[in-house]
Amino acid sequence: MNIRDLEYLVSLSEYKHFRKAADACNVSQPTLSGQIRKLEDELGIILLERTSRKVLFTQSGLLLVDQAKSILSEVKLLKEMASNQGKEMTGPLHIGIIPTLGPYLLPYIIPILKKDFPGIELFLYEAQTNRLLEKLESGQLDCAILASVLESESFIEIPIFKEKMLIAVSDNHRWSKEKSIPLERLKGKEILMLDDGHCLRGQALGYCFAAGATENPHFKATSLETLRNMVSTNVGITLMPELAILNEKERTGVKYIPCSDPQPSRNISLVYRPGSPLRSRYERIAKTISAIIKPVLS
């Protein structure tokens, strides 16, 4: 048994598909399948049920997967400790980011991060919050940039910036000429929302429900761009995060109006595993991102 065998096992547990797991591990499907069989032979237990097309783990397999994740996390920690010996800002850095931030934040920060920290090799991964936290927990990510949620409280969070949310309406909407709208005016209105899994959905719903608004039950978007296009056709209104509209203020068909009493917002943080020896690295990255974005938002 070696570390690579454990990586194959964990990957297979995540993808539930031999080819996809093999692609993620950069090996052929026969190689991954063969190593799993060798692992079973070595341990003397059956890890998988092979009677169907689906990848199903036995109870013993599930227990081993949990232990493998723990071992890989410790191995990741050892590698981080080694990379921190006099090389604080060098080496690979795997960063996760949520979809409602990625397209709007990365163009601002990546060129500067590469310029300021040329010794760091950046790897970027975009996914919803729960998926990012799973990968962070298992050691597949070093850190993640996301909106603070209850699920991230078990990690160390470094605040980066606060992002306002604005009301997006069609330019044919009766509110399109307003300079500001008290949140209470959403009472009784239906709001277009993102699909389940997006943390922005929960945060926006919290403000809307508090104001007495409801969710439009006939449509859920998979992206902010879909929401924006739906608003432009005057199908409904929504809350849009500030970074997503910085370069969209002149787009035909949509108006963005600040809210007040209270002003909806979300806190953006960089999160990493407790106990990581690379705290200073993450703090420098977070500080740099904050210095880039705060002037842009102000």
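(ticket continues) Second input and output from the same batch:
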Amino acid sequence: MALTLGPLLLDAGIDPGQALVVRHAFAQEAPESGLAGLHADSTHAEIFEYTRRQSASARSFPTAPSPIWVVFIKEGGDQARLWSVVECYGEVEDNGIFRTFHIADSEHMADLRNRLVIGWKPPRTWRMNATTAASYPVVGIADAEPIPFPGFDRLVLSHVQLQTMMREHRYASWRTALSSVVGVYMITDTRDGRHYVGKADGLENIRQRWNAYATNRHGGNVELRPLDPTSFRFSLLRVFDPSTPTRDIDIAESHFKDALDSRRHGLNRN
């Protein structure tokens, strides 16, 4: 059975009954419209601005549009590629020609932006209720673009981001980098600012240690077991070559526990 748009909407937490699907096409606007139109090199900001301005004609655009807009860009004669999903908070202006809406980028389907391509059956139709578009076939989902590793000293991840990094192909270089080092790391509980200082040494590298947190939330640490990991933030304090003696890593770990006072006022027990 062919995959359609409907299950992807539901999986992203979008109720098709509360969503509008829009397909933009590359076109130049008439100068008197005041709009720049769209072209192949339009930026995200330009497409966003184009999206928030719609015709004042009730026949062209719904009087009370849905709160979620799933926006595609025309590709070929009968296909469309996902640009983004935006949330609509209502109309802010109507000059009789255009209606301007307050919209904001949404994280719905963010992992499918510029990757999801669907078939678009009626070529002259540019917007419809998502309940109708839900039956449109998924033509393809392109591989995600790799995300460059930011460097050990710039790495800061929430627990959700940690899980994503350990799972998705686009973070392959991150996992490779973390597999190449041992060292001392910090977990901050952002609700109260308390720190936990830990280490990965011996046969266990940083990737292996952090994968434990991604898998079971607490990594086996007694201090972290009762806490909600959604408020955790992971970062690296110091990395070492895997050949570094364990004693040197122990000294560094102890230093950071003292410096951050993570025994008395943090989450370390020793």
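Agent notes: The chain has two domains: 5-141, 152-259. The helical segments are 5-11, 44-52, 130-133, 159-167, 172-179, 206-216, 246-259. Closing as not reproducible unless the customer responds.
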